[in-house]
Specification:
The complex is a heterodimer of chains A (about 170) and B (about 375). Chain A has about 170 residues and is mainly alpha-helical. Chain A has helices at about 30-35, 45-55, 80-85, 95, 100-110, 130-145, 150-165; strands at about 15-20, 20-30. A two-stranded antiparallel ribbon of chain A has the order 1-2. The longest helix of chain A is centred in the last third of the chain and has 17 residues, at about 130-145. Chain B has an eight-stranded antiparallel sheet. Chain B has a two-stranded antiparallel sheet with strand order 6-7. The N and C termini of chain B lie far apart (about 45 Å). By secondary structure, chain B is an alpha+beta fold. Chain B folds into two domains: about 15-255, Creatine Kinase, Chain A, domain 2, CATH 3.30.590.10; about 265-350, no CATH class.
Chain lengths: ~170, ~375
């Protein structure tokens, strides 16, 4: 078997790794394995090596999208590119490829709607009533998970809101 | 701000001396956030000139925020291969990031508790690292850094999907909460697979020492969340915290069970490990890790009463390939490293007395009394 890198010498170092349930194999001659620092199986990852191999070809040599294929107008990523890499090209891709998104996200996540932190710039002023409802839900969850520190903070926030808008209680 | 990374980083002995709650079993806690900046393609799709531009913008902003002041900042092509590998061994950057060069960079804070990888898979991968079980504290620290950054960088965000990431598996909170655990008791008691399976059922991942696709060397495992959308950050942190506490309990029980049912088997592992590691003349990094794990377990069982655990933790770090290479001018081959590693271990373990023979277990009536659950374990 010839070395996967130089294609000249007999491969003496054979590596196999399982990443995300996919098996990756690479065969190297002694020189190339030394050049790549693959001398200690504990000290490197195939991914690095494969990434390293690919850096010169990466992005610069993109195959053109098939005619008629859905392509992101902002970054030019085609549906087939996404299928291959599992990665989007830019934030706008989430809009471009929105149609198939929920089905995919369902297999990956607990929900389909963001329930976490919101940057200041995106925070909309909520009506106090809605805010109290939201906080009460979080309070229940905090108590459930025995996170009493957070629960106490939430309780105080709810109390303060209720004082501002007594009709809500 | 770029300077000598090796001068900037703490000595391994200092790094190993950091302590935190429950650090007998939990090496460290980590929270990572993935963020992207509007107006740039994601790093994996952007061409190099665009990555260089986004790196400039992002690095400039990160260097300026209060938590990162007086830190270390460098583009990846400003670091040598050795320096990058040292960062991986310190768990400050991912292996994937260490493989990058132009158009990527890192910013590290003065205390090495916060590290921002720029143009890894996402524009920003920022992480907060703490010794022992401190997931809530780690989340708080990274939340603060994130809030400080959002006024300087327009993050890509959607009301419905949250923070937008290159890979849809990270969309939403972009959070990965993880703890690194030392589980020799579960491994020796052959319960570790069962434990991993039940943790997997909760939607959490268990990985080896260096994250995705790596082996659990030295009985060290990383537990982390996988799902990032549909739950708030505190909910994710709390769930992981709860699971880690349960794993600590399982590990403690497994150790206790081994000690009660097969004390000689357990002591045999530890005694032999100490014998080999303190007397070998050539030892691979993998063997060293596995033996150190046993010796560390022996320390937990008070078989090395005069020794601080920091020494063993330091050796976990200094026997790694890049840390061994430090201070040696020519590039060492694997065989040379094995010799050097053995020399280091013999020298550092010279003053450590061999494991003491523990007192025979006290009669059951007594055991329930003063020692409490787990005794010295």
């Amino acid at each position: 078997m010839l070395c996967s890198i130089c294609q000249k010498n007999e491969a003496k170092v054979h590596l196999t790794q399982i990443v995300d349930d996919k098996m990756q194999k690479i065969d190297l001659c002694e020189e190339c394995s030394k050049a790549k620092g693959v001398t200690d199986p504990a000290g490197f990852s195939l991914a690095d090596l494969l990434l390293g191999l690919g850096t010169s070809q990466e992005a610069e040599a993109r195959p053109a999208a098939k005619p008629g294929e859905l392509t992101c107008p902002t970054c030019g990523l085609a549906q087939s590119d996404f299928k291959k890499s599992g990665r989007f090209g830019c934030p706008q891709c989430y809009v471009t490829f929105a149609e198939g998104l929920p089905v995919m996200l369902k297999t990956m996540h607990r929900g389909l709607r963001h329930a976490g932190k919101v940057p200041q710039a995106f925070r909309v002023k909520r009506e106090p009533v809605d805010q109290i409802k939201l906080l009460s839900r979080r309070l229940e969850k905090a108590i459930e998970s025995e996170n009493f520190e957070e629960a106490a903070q939430l309780r105080d926030q709810i109390r303060a809101l209720k004082q501002q808008a007594p009709s809500a209680s | 701000m770029p300077g000598d990374l090796q001068q900037f980083l703490s000595q391994p002995s200092e790094a190993a001396a950091r302590t935190g709650p429950l650090d007998r079993i939990v090496f460290s806690s980590r929270v990572r956030l993935a963020r992207n900046v509007q107006g740039f393609a994601f790093p994996g799709w952007a061409k190099k000139p665009e990555r260089v531009r986004s790196l400039d913008v992002i690095r400039g902003a990160v260097e300026q925020v209060a938590p990162m002041k007086e830190g270390f900042s460098s583009p990846m092509d400003g670091l040598s291969g050795l320096e990058k590998q040292i960062l991986v061994e310190r768990h400050l950057v991912s292996r994937e990031h260490a493989a990058k060069s132009g158009g990527s960079g890192i910013v590290l804070n003065r205390s090495e508790s916060l590290c921002v990888m720029i143009n890894e898979e996402d524009h920003l991968r920022m992480q907060s690292l703490r010794p022992g079980l401190q997931l809530r504290e780690a989340w708080k620290a990274i939340d603060e850094l994130d809030s400080a950054l959002e006024s300087r960088l327009p993050f890509a965000f959607s009301q419905e999907l949250g923070y937008l990431t290159a890979c849809p598996t990270n969309v939403g909170t972009g959070i990965r909460v993880s703890a690194m655990l030392h589980l020799p008791g579960l491994v020796l008691g052959e319960q570790v697979n069962k434990t991993i399976q039940s943790v997997n059922k909760l939607g959490l991942a268990v990985r080896g020492l260096y994250g995705e696709g790596t082996e659990a060397l030295g009985n060290i495992f990383q537990v982390s969340n996988q799902m990032t959308l549909g739950e708030s950050e505190p909910e994710i942190v709390e769930r992981l915290n709860k699971v880690v506490l349960q794993m600590i309990e399982h590990e403690t029980n497994a150790r206790q069970k081994l000690l009660e049912e097969k004390p000689k088997v357990l002591l045999n592992h530890i005694g032999r490990a100490f014998g080999v590691i303190s007397n070998a003349f050539s030892i691979s990094s993998k063997e060293a890790m596995n033996l150190l794990s046993m010796v560390r377990l022996g320390h937990d069982m008070e078989l090395f009463p005069d020794q601080s655990r920091a020494l063993f933790d330091e050796l976990f770090l200094t026997t790694q390939p890049a840390h061994l290479q430090r201070g040696h001018p020519g590039k060492l081959g694997a065989e040379e490293r094995d010799l050097l590693r053995a020399d280091l271990l013999r020298e550092r373990l010279q003053g450590v007395s061999r494991p003491v023979v523990p007192k025979p277990p006290s009669p059951p009536a007594d055991a329930a009394g003063s020692a409490g659950i787990g005794g010295g374990i």
